[in-house]
């Protein structure tokens, strides 16, 4: 017999099906699959036997191929699990390798009960066995994990099964202690982008701890905005910042832009209108040891754009950076002990970040005349450029990229009273538009970046 290599053994070992289950019954999934095993005579030969039986061995994820079997009190045997096509009592199912090893008495082929239970199967396995036939392959697989909270946004067809789904997720998601379902749109009930939720499983405790970009954040997920799916976008934006630059983070949340930027030794003024976000932001600044570079504020965004610009211009701020000589050089002639470097905060921002996609574009009028009377700061000899503005927004999903960019630029133009067109984001009057992510079937999130036009900044019309 030649053992076929194309059989999908994972599909043969499926959990039992119960499409009427509404409350999770874990013991229901205890299942025994009768298979064959190669009982090893000399345990010291197991490694070599596994090599010879590599085509005949059972390959099942999360399951060992060698098992210990108790035949009598104090007596153990080692067996190598074999593919289900092999039958102990039917030698016609044995490969030539198996026949040779049996003949040499290195192994004997014996029955083996392969026991699989609820703990073995993964979330998707259980879901495909308990959900109705029509949706068994369309189980909820798009969920966020924020600290110990699993955050679902269930569709209508999943609502009758929400407690069953949540119970399985609570078991299967490592570290999960609560499973919640969003029951309204983010920001639909208040201006702070929070949402109402229902607890489906676990403890009603949404005070979470999150690590992102080597930074630690702690916040109450029910009171502040946090989107785990924006991790990549946070990194992309922070990569635009250079050490020593000043950053104005107008809608900072708990600090996913501001804190990593502070770690790069960027000077950041970070603001959020939500008092809970402000408190969590202050905590993150202190906990991540960036107090020398990041200041937290709790103001209206429009006011903050102007007040932070004035504050940056009027205040002299310095930070002393201490650099210690590596231990490997301390006993050498190159040892210089401790070096200190004084950094001075710039007088103008290099970047303004407006991350409130539902309405950030409405804050753009605050930039009109922002630097009026300060034209000398940007004179050619200073080599200081007018700041880049990064404004996040939503727009309709459209296969016509030009149409999307045109709509975004028109929105910006209307608020700035200055014509803006798609382009490189550096040339005056041009906007670079970055496609961030899908947020709904017909809606996407974008980041529009442009250098503040001279006519807008100085209001020289």
As a percent range, the share of helical residues equals: 10-25%
Q: What distance separates the N and C termini?
A: 88 Å
Helix/sheet category: alpha/beta
Strand content: 25-35%
Query: Can you summarize the main beta sheet?
Result: 8 strands, mixed
How many DSSP H or I helices?
A: 11
Total strand segments? 20
Total count of domains: 3
**What topology, given as strand order, has the largest sheet?**
13-12-11-16-17-20-19-18
Radius of gyration: 31 Å
Task: Provide the CATH topology of the largest domain.
Answer: Rossmann fold
Classified in CATH, the superfamily of the largest domain is: Vaccinia Virus protein VP39
Subunit structure: Monomer.
Pfam family, one: TRM5-TYW2_MTfase
Binding site for S-adenosyl-L-methionine: 234, 272-273, 300-301, 355
Main location: mitochondrion
Question: What can be said about this structure in brief?
Answer:
Helix content is 21%, strand content 27%. By secondary structure, it is α/β, with parallel strands linked by helices.
């Amino acid at each position: 017999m030649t053992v076929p290599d194309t059989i999908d053994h994972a599909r043969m070992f499926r959990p039992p099906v119960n499409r009427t289950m509404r409350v999770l019954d874990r013991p229901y999934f205890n299942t025994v699959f009768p298979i064959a095993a190669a009982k090893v005579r000399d345990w010291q030969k197991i490694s070599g036997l596994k090599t010879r039986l590599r085509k005949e061995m059972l390959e099942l994820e999360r399951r060992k191929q060698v098992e210990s079997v108790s035949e009598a009190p104090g007596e153990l045997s080692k067996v190598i699990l074999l593919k289900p096509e092999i039958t102990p009592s039917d030698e016609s199912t044995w490969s030539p390798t198996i026949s040779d090893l049996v003949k040499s008495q290195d192994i004997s082929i014996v029955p083996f009960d392969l026991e699989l239970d609820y703990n073995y199967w993964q979330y998707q396995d259980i879901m495909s066995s308990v959900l109705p036939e029509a949706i068994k392959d369309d189980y909820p697989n798009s969920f966020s994990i924020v600290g110990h909270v699993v955050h679902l946004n269930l569709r209508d067809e999943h609502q009758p099964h929400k407690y069953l789904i949540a119970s399985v997720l609570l078991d299967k998601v490592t570290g999960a202690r609560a499973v919640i379902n969003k029951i309204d749109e983010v920001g639909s009930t208040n201006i702070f982008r929070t949402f109402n939720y229902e607890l489906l499983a676990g403890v009603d405790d949404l005070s979470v701890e999150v690590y992102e970009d080597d930074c630690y954040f702690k916040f109450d997920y029910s009171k502040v905005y946090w989107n785990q799916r924006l991790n990549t976008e946070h990194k992309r934006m922070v990569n635009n910042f250079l050490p020593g630059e000043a950053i104005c983070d107008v809608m900072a949340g708990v600090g996913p832009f501001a804190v990593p930027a502070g770690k790069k030794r960027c000077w950041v003024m970070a603001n959020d209108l939500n008092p809970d976000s402000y408190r969590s932001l202050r905590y993150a600044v202190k906990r991540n040891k960036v107090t020398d570079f990041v200041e937290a504020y709790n103001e209206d965004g429009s006011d903050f754009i102007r007040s932070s610009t004035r504050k940056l211009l009027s205040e002299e701020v310095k930070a002393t950076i201490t650099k210690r000589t590596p231990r490997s050089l301390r006993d050498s002639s190159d040892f210089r002990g401790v070096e200190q470097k004084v950094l001075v905060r710039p007088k103008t921002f290099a970047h303004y970040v407006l991350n409130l996609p539902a309405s950030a574009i409405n804050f753009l009028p605050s930039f009109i005349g922002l630097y009026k009377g300060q034209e000398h700061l940007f004179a050619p000899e200073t080599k200081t450029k007018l700041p880049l503005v990064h404004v996040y927004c939503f727009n309709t999903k459209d296969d016509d990229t030009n149409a999307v960019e045109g709509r975004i630029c028109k929105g910006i133009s209307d608020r700035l009273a200055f014509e803006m067109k798609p382009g490189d984001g550096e040339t005056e009057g041009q906007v670079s538009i970055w496609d961030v992510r899908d947020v709904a079937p017909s809606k996407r999130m974008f980041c529009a970046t442009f250098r503040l036009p001279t006519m807008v900044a100085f209001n020289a019309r």
